[in-house]
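Researcher: Let's do a round of design. I'm pasting the C-alpha cells now; please hold your answer until I've finished.
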C-alpha cells in the first residue's frame, strides 16, 4: 500500500498531467531521466585522490520520497578552499555562514562541503543562520574536525525553514556512506538537484609544467536549471582537485575562471539568493604547490580550470527549464572585452531573442535591438555600419549571413529553418572594430537557451 506521502505525490503528478503541466524536456519527481539528456551523464570518471562523497535521502521536500537530497563531499586531509558567492542582497543563511568561515580560516583547513536540496534556507532570519551553523557543526563532529572545517550550501524554495532535525539526523548516515567510486560521485551530483532533469558531473586529469611525473585530477558537480544569470545564478557548484594550491592562489584562479564560465551563462535573467561555487584542493597527488600568480603552473592551471568550468557550466544551460536549444553567442572584433561581454549578455537574456529561437524564426532584428540597447558599452564600440550578424551551424557548414556591415542580406528562410531545427546553434556578431582600428580585437562569449511555453508552466507550478 502506498504511503500518504507517495499518494500525495502521485496525486500532484496526476493533477499536473491533467492541467498539461508536465515538462516534455524533463522528468517529474517519480520518473526517469529524459532520454535526450542521458548522453550528458558520464558512465565513468577519474576522481581526485583523498576525496570521498555521498548522497543521502532525507526528504527535505515532502514530495521527495526516495531521491537523495543531502550531499556530502569530504577530504581525508585539510584543504585549501575558495568560493564565489551570489551578489544578491538577500543572501541566504548558508551563503553568509560559508563566507564567514572562509574569512575566518583564510581558506585553510577546510575538509568538507555539505549541501541540502529542497529548501534554500533563504530569508529565514536568525533561525536560518542557526540551522546552517548546525549543519556545519554536525559535519565537523562526524569528520572529527575541531571547528570551522565545513562549508554549507542549500537550494530550493526561498522563505521556508529547513526541517533541520531530519537533516542533522541523516548527516551521520551520509558520513558512513562516503565512497570515492564513480557511482557515489554521480549519486552526490543527483542529491543537489531541484528542477534539474539530470545530475551534472565531470572529471578530468591533467599535468603541470613543474611536475610532469604527477597526474592530477579535477572533479566537479553542479546544479541549476532556472533562475540563472550572473552574478551568478540559482546554481551550486563544488570542484575538487588533488593538486597542491595555496588558498590565495586558489581564490584568484577560481574568480578568473568563474568570470568566463558560470558568469557567462543565462537561462532567464534572474539571479538567486544562494549561488555558490566552491573549490577544494588537498594536494594529495603531491608535487610543488602553486603559490604564485606569476608561475607557469598557475598559468597552466588557470587555462585547465577555465576550460573545465566552462564545460561544467554549459551543462546547466543544456538543462534550462523547458529549453529546446543550446545557443552560443559570440561577439567578435570588439575594442574591449567588457563591452563584448555586456553585448553578449544582453542578447542572451532577451526574451524576444529567446522566443524567436524557440519558434525557429530567423528574426535577427531582435538580436540587433538587444545589441543597440545594451547599457555600459564604451562609446564607439557599436557602429551600425560596421556590424554584421550571422548564424553559424555547429555541423561546420557555411554560415548563414543575416546582416553584413549594417546592410541586410536576402535571407534563405528554408536554410534558416534547417539551422534552427538543430539543438545547438551559434550566433556570431562581428562589430568590425578591434583594437586601434585593427581587426582581431577582443571577443566575448555567452551560453544561453531559448524560452518555451514550458518555462512559464514550470515556474508557475514550482512550489506545488
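Researcher: That's everything. Go ahead.
Model: Designed sequence:
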Amino acid at each position: 500500500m502506498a504511503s500518504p506521502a507517495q499518494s500525495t505525490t502521485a496525486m500532484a503528478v496526476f493533477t499536473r498531467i491533467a492541467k498539461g503541466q508536465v515538462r516534455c524536456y524533463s522528468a517529474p519527481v517519480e520518473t526517469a531521466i529524459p532520454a535526450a539528456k542521458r548522453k550528458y551523464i558520464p558512465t565513468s570518471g577519474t576522481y581526485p585522490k583523498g576525496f570521498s562523497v555521498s548522497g543521502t535521502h532525507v526528504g527535505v521536500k515532502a514530495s521527495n520520497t526516495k531521491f537523495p537530497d543531502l550531499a556530502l563531499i569530504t577530504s581525508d586531509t585539510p584543504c585549501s578552499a575558495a568560493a564565489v558567492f551570489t551578489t544578491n542582497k538577500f543572501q541566504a543563511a548558508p551563503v553568509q555562514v560559508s563566507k564567514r568561515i572562509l574569512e575566518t580560516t583564510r581558506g585553510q583547513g577546510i575538509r568538507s562541503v555539505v549541501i541540502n536540496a529542497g529548501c534554500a534556507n533563504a530569508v529565514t532570519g536568525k533561525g536560518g543562520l542557526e540551522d546552517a551553523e548546525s549543519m556545519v557543526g554536525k559535519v565537523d563532529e562526524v569528520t572529527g574536525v575541531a571547528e570551522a572545517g565545513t562549508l554549507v550550501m542549500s537550494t530550493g524554495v526561498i522563505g521556508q525553514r529547513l526541517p533541520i532535525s531530519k537533516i542533522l539526523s541523516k548527516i551521520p548516515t551520509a558520513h558512513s556512506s562516503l565512497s570515492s567510486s564513480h557511482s557515489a560521485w554521480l549519486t552526490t551530483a543527483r542529491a543537489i538537484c531541484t528542477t534539474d532533469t539530470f545530475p551534472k558531473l565531470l572529471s578530468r586529469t591533467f599535468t603541470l609544467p613543474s611536475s610532469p611525473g604527477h597526474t592530477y585530477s579535477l572533479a566537479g558537480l553542479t546544479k541549476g536549471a532556472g533562475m540563472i544569470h550572473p552574478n551568478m545564478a540559482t546554481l551550486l557548484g563544488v570542484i575538487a582537485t588533488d593538486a597542491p594550491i595555496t588558498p590565495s592562489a586558489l581564490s584568484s584562479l577560481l574568480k578568473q575562471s568563474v568570470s568566463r564560465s558560470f558568469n557567462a551563462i543565462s537561462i532567464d535573467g534572474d539571479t538567486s539568493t544562494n549561488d555558490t561555487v566552491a573549490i577544494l584542493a588537498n594536494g594529495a597527488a603531491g608535487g610543488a604547490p602553486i603559490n604564485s600568480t606569476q608561475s607557469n603552473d598557475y598559468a597552466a592551471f588557470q587555462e585547465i580550470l577555465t576550460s573545465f568550468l566552462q564545460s561544467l557550466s554549459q551543462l546547466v544551460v543544456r538543462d534550462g527549464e523547458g529549453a529546446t536549444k543550446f545557443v552560443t553567442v559570440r561577439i567578435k572584433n570588439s575594442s574591449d572585452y567588457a563591452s563584448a561581454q555586456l553585448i553578449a549578455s544582453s542578447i542572451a537574456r532577451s526574451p524576444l531573442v529567446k522566443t524567436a529561437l524557440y519558434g525557429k524564426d530567423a528574426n535577427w532584428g531582435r538580436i540587433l535591438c538587444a545589441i543597440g540597447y545594451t547599457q555600459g558599452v564604451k562609446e564607439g564600440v557599436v557602429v551600425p555600419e560596421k556590424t554584421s550578424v550571422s548564424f553559424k551551424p555547429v555541423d561546420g557548414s557555411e554560415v548563414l549571413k543575416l546582416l553584413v556591415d549594417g546592410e541586410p542580406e536576402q535571407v534563405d528562410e528554408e536554410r534558416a529553418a534547417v539551422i534552427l531545427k538543430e539543438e545547438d546553434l551559434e550566433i556570431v556578431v562581428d562589430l568590425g572594430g578591434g583594437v586601434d582600428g585593427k581587426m582581431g580585437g577582443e571577443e566575448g562569449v555567452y551560453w544561453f537557451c531559448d524560452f518555451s511555453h514550458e518555462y512559464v508552466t514550470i515556474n508557475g507550478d514550482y512550489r506545488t
